Amino acid sequence: MRLLQRNDNGVFELTRHFAVEELPSYAILSHTWLSENDQEVSYDDLIQSNAESKPTGYSKIQFCGEQAAKDGLEYFWLDTCCINRNSSAELQEAITTMFVWYRNATRCYAYLTDVSVKKTPRSVTADEPTRPWELAFRRSRWFTRGWTLQELLAPASVEFFSAEGIRLGDKKSLQSVIHEITGIPYEALRGDAVTNFTVDQRLSWAANRQTKRKEDKAYCLLGLFNIFMPLLYGEGDHAFERLRQEIDRKDAENAKRDYLLTTLPVASEAAFNSRHNQHEPTCLPNTRMELLLEIEHWLESPDERCIFWLNGIAGTGKSTVARTVARTYYNRGKLGANFFFSRGGGDLGNAIKLVTTLSRQLAARLPPVRPYICEAIDGQEDVMGLSLKDQWQRLIINPLSKLHFNHPRPTVLIVIDALDECENEGDVRILIRTLSTARTLTNIRLRIFVTSRPEILIRHGFTKIPEVEREVFALHEISPDIVDRDLSIFFENHFSAIREERGFDDDWPGMRIIKRLVEISCGLFIWASTACRFIREGRRLAKSRIKILINGYRSGAGPEKQLDLIYTNVLRNSIQQDYNEKEKEELYGMLREVLGSIVILCSPLSMESLAKLLAIPLDDIKDTLADLHTIFNIPPQTSYPLRLHHPTFRDFLLNKERCSDLDFWVDEKQAHQALADSCLALMSKKLKSDICGLGSPGTLVDDIDPDLIERCISPDLQYACLYWVEHCRQSGRRLADGDPIDRFFREHFLHWLEAINLMGKSAEMGAIIRLYHALLMPDANPRQLPFVKDARRFIFKFQNIIKRAPLQTYCAALSFVPSTNELKFQFRSQMHPWIKGIRIAEADVPAAKDEFNYVSDLAFTPDSKQIASGSNFEAVRFWDVASKTTLAKYEGATDKMSSVAISPDGMTIAAGSDDFTVMAWDIKTRALRYSIKAHSGWVNSVFFSPDGKILASGAMDETIALWDALTGREIKRIDNQSSCVNTATFSPDGSLIATGSVDGMIRLWDVSNDSEDIRLILDGHSGCVNSVRFSPNGNRIVSGSDDMTIKLWGTTTGTEYMTLKGHTKKVMAVAFSLDSHLIASGSEDKTVRIWDAVNGTAVAILRDHTSGLNSVLFSPNGKLLASSSFDDEVRLWDTNTWALVGKLDDFEEDINPGILPSRQSSTISTGEMMESVMPSKGHSSTITRVVFSPDGQWLASGSEDATIKIWLRKREHHKLGGHSDRINDLAFSPDSDLIASASADKTVRLWSVATGVASHIFEGHSDSVLAVLFSPDGQLVASRSNDTTIILWDPSIGVALGKVEGHSGPVNGIAFSPDNRFIVSCSVDTTALLSDLENNAASVMLRGHTGPVNSIAFSSDSKLLVSGSEDSTIRFWSKLGAGTGVIRDTLPINSACFSPDSQLMASCSIDGTIRLWDPISKSAVGSLNVGTVVRNLSFSSCGQYLETDRGVLNIASFNIPSSSSLFSSTRPYSLFVTHDWLRRDMENALWLPNEYHATDVATWGNLIVLGHSTGSISFIEFRI
């Protein structure tokens, strides 16, 4: 970009060409060109010093240069002379980039040569009543030209000047007039991104504008649409056509970006200008002036202070300042994003949607960053699954770092208010640390303004940020005189409104009263605002209410006490005094119930919803709140949410010391108890199967009208579904088996799952049930605990489908949950009505390992000869290392063993269990030494001190307990700063305990004496810390975290030495080698990684586990590394070569781990359940064929395990053994008495269905037999093979009758003619062979295809044949072998067949499309893409269905008229299987998990049978 400047001689001259990154600040001129272009000063005129020879054009340069100088700018730009129009490249660049040049200009001057102010030769402001120039302004040519449109919209501000150079106003002050002239929306004029407006809207703004050249009508809009296209002057109107094409292409890109952005969840009410916040105040004029000025200085300063923390005690006005800052910089176009936290505000009360909300706002407010944010979303499958730190890096920092701006660097502001109201302390800690990364951006100045109370956690977080990177301001430390001044202005402003409303005297209430109220407010703006509302709500009693406030003042009481007094006065005034005591008590009770519920709500509710939740009449709610507008924001519509004006009322109402009038005090625990009961009652009443009446169980959430969900799951019911467990937790209630929660869960769990997923809250369902699980105690909940664990398994396994199709809760989830899961039995009656029943013959192999409740510990004996591990059942497992065989189990717990340790002397083994106990055994005798009820939460870690005298345990109850290792006596207990202990360990000298916690912190506790001092806090991970270990020399600590990193720390100073990255999922375990030189890590990504502990390089990656890793440990002799995984498998590795030494043997419980042994006897409680626990088994390998007998009584299955099974009524009747290789095909005889099998062992076998005995073995093929087929009369069996031949067999005597030869490649298909006279075959050799069985004539070779022939079939009258080939053709043949026609398709054909009346022909191609053809005209009459590849198809005997290897399709699905000659159908509907869905009449009915995808399909009526790759077989019966 080339600019203009005035040289030392006062002459305007052009600068050199500036690169984008080095551009100085500049002004820019917007104007209309003179009617004669040659009167404008051009680039050549300036180069040749002829500028002044064109006085009219030169005057524009003079004006712009002088005005820029007045504004402190040395450089400026004009389009007439700063562009060398002789250079097509430069002109192209200028026109393409001009929008950006105008947007980046420091000042933009619109010079209107046709608007004169000669009658008023001074600056005229827009708010003057008379503007003589306005008519000329409205008629100005500037508003009619094409190029000036972008010049109006691109800059943040445009200043308008008359022909005399007099300032008329700017885009903001004149926006109403400009809006009327142009029709451009106010939002666009105020600076909203043009991308926020539709293409048609933007085009309409230019519709009536003119350009001198036709092409410019398109080119002047390039910037408005962010389009690049070559300039082709001379193309005329075609330029606009090209522009529309480019806009359409860009629109498609934007549509994709819009979709990507919609995948980011947003807290819709978080912004300062959301509907929720629209009535919240900003600072009054002339208040907070000094503070706002300081904030402005910080924001604009070039230093590294990227964070401004405004802190202050409750009620000092922090949020009002935050809103003012947000509004101010929003208007200036510098506000990038904002988030206003609010405890009890649902999404506003936590940080779950913080980063995604900020990112969405940034994309809207800062268009250049939009594509980079979308790119980040597109590149990450589950952004919400990332840690807060990683979300911030991916969605905020990385996209912003890719922007390119001119110097000086632009400022982008992010405002975060009320950080102290974020309910998760761990998130607060991580967020403070994460925000400071704003300093890493070098291309822009990212400034983050944060407000909060000065709580210890937050104060500590900000002190960790270097002073040069932060600004801290304490509101409560502002000079009292300044605060009192601002409060006086505040009171006077509000009293002015009251005077006007009530008609009071102009001097009411007087400065003396205002001064007194200022004094009483003690510097609290919340007191002042509450007082003003209280006085205003008094209406005609406003004066008396002032007296109440003044008379109630207690000198020296302090700010909090004054606030308590005003809240008490407001509450007392809401209760009329003309009630008797009994009536008053009733009113007080109602007041406590309603107010207590409102203040403890986890998310705001409307009066209507609150009434339904509490089962209180709406009128009672209205009456209770009628006089409490002072405290609550009560909208006139009862369907809008109620909100507290300020959170200090919650603090007051729930604190017995502060709310001294017990008529109003709310017992918080009792209030939570009452709300929990209300939630349960409402859910029990309203929840049901298919609550939205969807009908079809495959309906996707994305396809459901949100209004339907809102109507069927009302806000009160949604609230109950989300927060019933949270209220139960906060009530402190002790749960018991058989209590209302237990009964609700056992009856409505699936209904709740359906509702929570319909609500779009699938991400929360796991956390809610996990919290419920944590509330259960082993001694009080022996029935609930295993049931809730099974519920968590249920969610874990099926969460991906039920969040997409919630009704699959009653279909896929209930169908495919393991029979060992109690929910299968408990909810069997809730199976979706479409499904009558499902029976699964599970694979005849060991059951899959349970990965849900994995263990987290390994322990070697000191001599490295034995190793112990926790387990998914109630015992510690113990192995011999050399032989890898099992040695012993140490039992006694009532839940799984999560942690294990062996004493330094090798005599004792200790373990921690999920039943909250710590146990110790004698290793040799296996005798239990002691069992301690050690904690009130799961015990995650047990560990011995180096001298063996102390056994320590860490648990989910946020404590570490130290025990006498010999007796089990408690020595001390350490509170882990309110954070659950995931992992803990002693230092080598025994003086320290390191804990890794859920909050992402590592704490070092000094246990060398009686104190419980914390030595260090290691703060660096952005996710839960799962494993912590000291190096053997004690100098270092290594930690692994959910954030996928391993960190190395110094134990003396806490210095973070290095971060190791490489794992792609959570790091669950870490360990040091004996010499401290190596680190091993195990991750959910199923790998063990070895690292050099000195330089951090990767040494090795160990891959063999089939499940995530949970523990790694070096043996004491250093020769082995042990690793264990979620599926309870333990592997050993050689530390010299990193080769796998082997896997430790399974214990008996490992082989069937789906259910704990302690539950097995109680689970199998009925005959029905016994049947489901011990059903018939399937095969041990992939199912290759399932086929029904012609009479539908029998089913045969074949497998790669070389066995055949015959099933009667869904139960195994015979198992047929004899083949030595996989079964390729099965076929029943027409009378259903025999079954033939074809095998890869080169033989065909014939079996009696009734007895299961092999009657004949047919040998004769020299390669794998691919298929077998009975003739229609059952007199022949034909087999085809890879050996290129077909052999005909007599099934009655078991001899070969003949061999059909002639093919030169494997035979792909065979078919008998319906009259039994012919057999035809097709081959990969591109031919078909037609053989006459009656006359024994030579086979006829059918030639014509140019690719492998995949199928061939006869018509029902045996006169015609049809073949399909990979050459994408279908050919027709006579029974004599003559070609009679061809159909050319576009893709290879897998199969083709005739309908029974030969009026239709069907074909299937490799893209999953099935087509119906008219065999006479050879034209397509219908098509259907079935979503999966169909290999074989034929018409049913009635002609109404297509029978395929994936199920049955109704011809009606093709929307063609049915032939009247076809027989009527006996099927109730069609059943068809795609890749992952079972469909009923082409509607998705049952989702199929990966392990239940079908390898073969057979149907009979309303029964469908699926074979699976695991060897299992599913029998699924639908209701008729």
Describe this structure in words.
This protein is of the alpha+beta class and 1520 residues long. Residues 120-124, 1153-1173 and 1459-1464 have low confidence and may be disordered. Strands 4-3-5-6-7 form a 5-stranded mixed sheet, with helices on both faces. Helix 24 packs across helix 26, helix 25 crosses helix 26 (618-625) and helix 31 (740-758) packs parallel to helix 33 (784-802).
Features:
single chain, 1520 residues, alpha+beta, 5-stranded mixed beta sheet, 5-stranded parallel beta sheet, 38 helices
Q: Summarize this, please?
A:
This protein is α+β, with helices and mostly antiparallel strands and 1520 residues long. It is built from 38 helices and 76 strands. β24 (939-944) and β25 (950-955) form a beta hairpin.
Sheet with most strands: strand arrangement: 4-3-5-6-7
Give the distance, in angstroms, between the N- and C-terminal Cα atoms. Answer: 76 Å
Largest sheet: 5 strands, mixed
Helix content: 25-40%
Identify low-pLDDT runs: 120-124, 1153-1173, 1459-1464
Q: What's the number of helices?
A: 38
Mean pLDDT: 90
Structural class of the secondary structure composition?
Answer: alpha+beta
**Residue share in β-strands:** 25-35%
How large is the radius of gyration? 40 Å
Shape descriptor reads globular
Overall strand count: 76
Topology:
Blueprint (H helix, E strand, L loop, with lengths): L1 E5 L5 E6 L8 E5 L12 H5 L7 H16 L4 E3 L10 H17 L2 E5 L22 H5 L8 H7 L5 E3 L5 E4 L4 H8 L3 H4 L9 H8 L9 H4 L2 H4 L12 H25 L26 H12 L6 E5 L6 H14 L3 E6 L13 H12 L4 H9 L9 H14 L9 E7 L7 H11 L9 E8 L3 H8 L6 E5 L5 H23 L8 H11 L3 H13 L4 H10 L6 H17 L6 H20 L6 H8 L3 H8 L6 E2 L9 E2 L3 H6 L14 H19 L19 H7 L2 H17 L8 H19 L3 H14 L8 H19 L9 H5 L5 H5 L8 E7 L16 E3 L5 E4 L5 E6 L5 E6 L5 E6 L5 E6 L3 E6 L5 E6 L5 E6 L5 E6 L3 E6 L5 E6 L5 E6 L5 E6 L3 E6 L7 E6 L5 E6 L5 E6 L3 E6 L5 E6 L5 E6 L5 E6 L3 E6 L5 E6 L5 E6 L5 E6 L4 E5 L5 E4 L4 H4 L5 H7 ...
Parallel strand pairs: 3-4, 3-5, 5-6, 8-11, 8-12, 9-10, 10-11
Antiparallel strand pairs: 1-2, 6-7, 13-14, 15-76, 16-17, 17-18, 18-19, 20-21, 21-22, 22-23, 24-25, 25-26, 26-27, 28-29, 29-30, 30-31, 32-33, 33-34, 34-35, 36-37, 37-38, 38-39, 40-41, 41-42, 42-43, 44-45, 45-46, 46-47, 48-49, 49-50, 50-51, 52-53, 53-54, 54-55, 56-57, 57-58, 58-59, 60-61, 61-62, 62-63, ...
Helix pairs in contact: 11-15, 14-16, 15-16, 16-17, 17-18, 19-20, 19-21, 21-22, 21-23, 24-26, 24-28, 25-26, 25-30, 28-30, 30-32, 31-33, 32-33
